[in-house]
Design brief:
The protein has helices at about 1-20, 25-40, 70-75; strands at about 85-95, 100-105, 115, 120-125, 130-140, 145-155, 160-165. By secondary structure, it is α+β, with helices and mostly antiparallel strands. The longest helix has 18 residues, at about 1-20.
Length: about 170
Amino acid sequence: MKQTCILVLLISIIFTACNFPIPTEPADIIETDLTQYQGKNPGTTHTNLSTPQPTVIIPQPTSGSRPDQINLAKIINNLFPLFCIARVRGMAHLDNGQLLVTIEVPGGVQGDYYACVGKNFFNCSILSQYPDHLYCHGRYSQAGQYAYLRLFKQGEEKAVFEARIGIPP
C-alpha cells in the first residue's frame, strides 16, 4: 500500500513538472546581451534573433451580427431571480412571536411570494432598499428544531427555492 502511494506521488510529480512551460528570455534581453557583447568584441557581427510579430486579423462585423452599442439598462432590467444560488441569510424571532426568515436571491426579486416552513404559511415581502432579499414572516412554535423551508411564487404550485433550516431557540 505504501509503495503504491509513493509510486502514484512520483508519477503525479513527473506529470506536473511536464506541464509547466520552459522559461524563455524575451528577444529584447537577448538583443541587449548581444549588443553588450559586440561592444567588447568589435569584430563580431550582429544578427537579429527576434522573431517576427504575428499578424493579427480582426474580423469586421457583418450586418446583423451584433449591435454596435449594448444597452446595459435593458440587460439589467431583464435580469431574473437566480433561485438556484439563493440562500437563507438570517432568521430571528420577532417581538410579536413570529419568525422572520431572510432569503437572499441574486438577480433581484419582483412579484409576490409566500413560503411554507414545515406546515406553516409565511407571508413574504420585498423592501425597495434591498430588492434582492425576501423577508418572510409567520408563526412557528418549534424553536430549536429543523424544518424545511419552501418558497413559492404566487399562483405557482412548484417551489422556486427549498432549504432545510434550523429554527433558532
